[in-house]
Design a protein that fits this description.
By secondary structure, this protein is an alpha+beta fold. Helices cover 28% and strands 21% of the residues. The chain has 19 helices and 24 strands. It is globular, with a radius of gyration of 33 Å. About 4% of the residues have low confidence. Pfam families: tRNA-synt_2.
């Protein structure tokens, strides 16, 4: 019995035979004769085909979109072409000698809205993502029963092939459709059965993300992302910006989010931190004399993940010297106007609407309101004051004007409490018989102090805000300066919009939210009777600690230097921060920066109480534990006034793509746990590897 050879041994012999044939020698090491020699020669020929195949003459896209090629077809020609790609669908055998299949190739050219409109093709981009292949073996002399002959009918779905053939019009109801009459098909790489099984699955295993990325939807999303980056760069270049790359190996600084650390091999016990943003480096660039800077920056934050967050993400970062907030906002508006015009074919009206933070919170219950709906929250302070909690005195309502008796789940709940401070979000629907019933319940729930009797107050409220029979009224309380964000009524407004309103891609409501509180009191973690508890004596920066106070708030900030025990009231101090919001999504945020070293030191040391920083430092005095020494030193060196902003590039692309999740516009996203199953990260490392970096794991 002949000993079975290992695959490795066979491969070695194939390599030897390949070299022999390559140099034109007929020598064979197989002593069994010509049959084995012929078989090996065929095997080597197939191997060569996989690496030495003809160059593609066209892409499917070009066959459909190239005007000169279309002219040839109209004149009756059947041009010979070579295409590369994958078998997109399982072949369909219509007889012993005839078969059909679809080919999908690799090139996807993202076209702008203007290009699509100008070309006015009958077929959509998705229609021309594939082309039909037709194989007719009737006139061929090849033995179709021979397993060594590459036939379309034998192809597995997703097999990688090179197709040679002639183009003609396909028969059927779509006169624009083309097909390739196959002369020769070469397998470049065979697909496993698992590939076709994955194609039919509803939920993709993230280990096979590269297969999912072959879909038209994700190919289009990645092409769109590339086009968006190109357009943004063109706007920056047109306004005199310089693209500068900043380091990824930074140091740990307290900016709010948890950081990712990289241990140093050369300095035991020390670590780099991956940047949460290039904020400090770009301010250093302003001190360096770079007038207008931008970059597509990779950022890292060790946060709890959700559909619009990833541990690593991309932001479009910009900074400008000798400017004010309006200058930055003009640049950002020009970017968004250009993107929506070229990607979506929509003209954005600009300048964009502006809302102060307090107004956004009081009218819409959130600092990133979706203004596609005119539904607002009404402040009833002129009619009543809540005495239930002194920190939440403002009594307010949200009214859903019902147009029919059947209401969606987000709205209908005729029984129970009309307030949202109870564990369940109940609401009440008005009736003719008891029009003041909702207010009666609110008086008890919120311990309301009314300016008039209950019946009169209810009647005046309903008249002023046009509340009618059948409407649904939601009632709640909030802080005078709302730090609870969103408020209960703000959350309810969003839920109603999501479940009862439909919007088209052309329904757009971009706006700037400005004049944010500079500082935010910390949450204690306690919720008492539905009320979130805040500690107003412990403040954090609302956005980051480098934001300039508003001019009117400067005296209150500077007052912190007069008395060590002076208390800064977060409810009265505002910053020069601005967020750009599109349809309820915060696309970016920026601010005018503090460019005065003394003021920046005061904010960090006295108000935010960052360890290691003193309020006053004598010339030459060292602060070894100060994490911001580099920035404070730069500000003392005549750093100019500057301002900037960062756009969330992933989130912006998701909006333009019409996606609910940024995962759709990222090639290799992480899971909800921050893992990448495709490559198996994060992965374990050995004790020996850790030892090189002076790191030891706790047992």
């Amino acid at each position: 019995m002949r000993h079975q050879q290992s695959p490795l041994h066979v491969l070695k012999r194939l390599r030897i035979s390949y070299r022999v044939i390559q140099y034109g020698r007929s020598y064979s090491q197989n002593s069994s004769g010509g049959i084995a020699q012929t078989a090996r020669r065929d095997e080597i020929a197939k191997l060569k085909e996989r690496f030495d195949f003809p160059k593609a003459t066209h892409t499917i896209w070009q066959l459909y979109r190239d005007a000169s090629f279309q002219t040839q077809l109209q004149q009756g020609a059947a041009p010979k072409v070579v295409l590369h790609g994958w078998i997109d669908s399982p072949p369909r055998k219509v007889s012993r000698t005839r078969a059909f299949a679809n080919l999908r190739d690799v090139q996807f050219l993202y076209r702008t809205a203007e290009q699509i409109d100008n070309e006015k093709h009958q077929a959509s981009d998705e229609d021309v993502a594939t082309i039909q292949l037709f194989e007719d073996l009737t006139a061929k002399s090849a033995d179709i029963n021979s397993p060594g002959v590459a036939l379309l009918r034998r192809m597995k779905q997703e097999t990688c092939v090179c197709v040679e053939g002639h183009v003609c019009r396909a028969k059927g109801n779509a006169p624009w459709r083309l097909e390739i009459v196959v002369d020769r098909i070469t397998i470049l790489n065979q697909a496993e059965d698992l590939v076709s099984q994955m194609r039919g699955a509803k939920d993709w295993d993230p280990k096979y993300r590269y297969l999912q990325l072959r879909s038209f939807r994700l190919q289009r999303a990645l092409a769109m992302r590339s086009k968006v980056a190109t357009l943004i760069r063109s706007v920056f270049e047109g306004h005199g910006f310089t693209e500068v790359e900043t380091p990824l190996l930074f140091r740990s600084t307290p900016e709010g989010a948890r950081e990712f650390f990289v241990p140093s091999r050369t300095e035991a016990g020390k670590m780099y931190a991956l940047p949460q943003s290039p904020q400090q480096y770009k301010q250093l660039l302003m001190a360096s004399g770079v007038h207008r800077y931008y970059q597509f920056a990779r950022c890292f934050r060790d946060e709890d993940l959700r559909k619009d967050r990833q541990p690593e993400f991309t932001q479009v970062d910009l900074e400008m010297s000798f400017v004010k907030a309006s200058d930055v906002q003009d640049i950002v508006e020009s970017i968004l106007v250009r993107l929506w015009k070229e990607i979506k074919g929509v003209e954005l009206r600009h300048p964009f609407k502006r809302l102060r933070y307090v107004e956004a919170m009081s009218r819409y219950g959130i600092d990133k309101p979706d203004l596609r709906s005119d539904m607002e929250i009404y402040d009833l302070s002129e009619f009543a004051t809540s005495m239930a909690n002194p920190d939440y005195p403002v009594f307010e309502i949200l009214v859903f004007h019902a147009e029919n008796s059947k209401l969606p789940a987000a709205v209908s709940a005729p029984d129970g409490s009309p307030t949202l401070r109870t564990p369940l979000s109940h609401r009440i629907r008005l009736s003719k018989e008891e029009p003041s019933k909702w207010l009666h319940r609110c008086v008890a729930e919120f311990d309301l102090k009314l300016v008039s009797d209950l019946e009169t107050t209810a009647s005046e409220i309903m008249k002023k805000f046009d509340i009618r029979d059948g409407d649904v009224v939601y009632s709640c309380t909030r802080q005078q300066m709302p730090f609870e964000n969103p408020t209960p009524l703000g959350r309810q407004r969003l839920q109603i919009m999501q479940e009862t309103m439909n919007f088209s891609e052309k329904d757009l409501a971009p706006l700037w939210v400005i004049d944010f509180p500079l500082f935010t009191p910390t949450e204690t973690g306690r919720v008492v009777n539905g009320y979130v508890e805040f500690d107003y004596s412990r403040l954090v920066a609302t956005h980051h600690p480098f934001t300039m106070p508003s001019i009117d708030s400067l005296p209150a900030v500077l007052n912190a230097t007069e008395d060590e025990s002076s208390w800064v009231d977060a409810r009265t101090i505002f910053g020069q921060h601005y967020d750009i919001v599109v349809n309820g999504v915060e696309v970016g945020g920026g601010s005018t920066r503090i460019h005065d070293s003394s003021l920046q030191r005061l904010v960090l040391s006295r108000i935010l109480q960052v360890p290691g920083i003193r309020t006053h430092v004598e010339a030459g005095e060292m602060e070894p534990d100060n994490p911001f020494t580099h920035l404070l030193n730069a500000l003392t060196m005549a750093c100019p006034p500057h301002a900037g902003l960062a756009l969330g590039f992933d989130r912006l692309c998701a909006i333009l793509n019409g996606s609910d999740s940024i995962r759709d516009v990222i090639a290799f996203p992480k899971t909800q746990t921050g893992a990448d199953p495709l490559v198996g990260s994060p992965s374990r490392v050995t004790d020996e590897q850790l030892g090189v970096y002076h790191v030891q794991l706790k047992k």
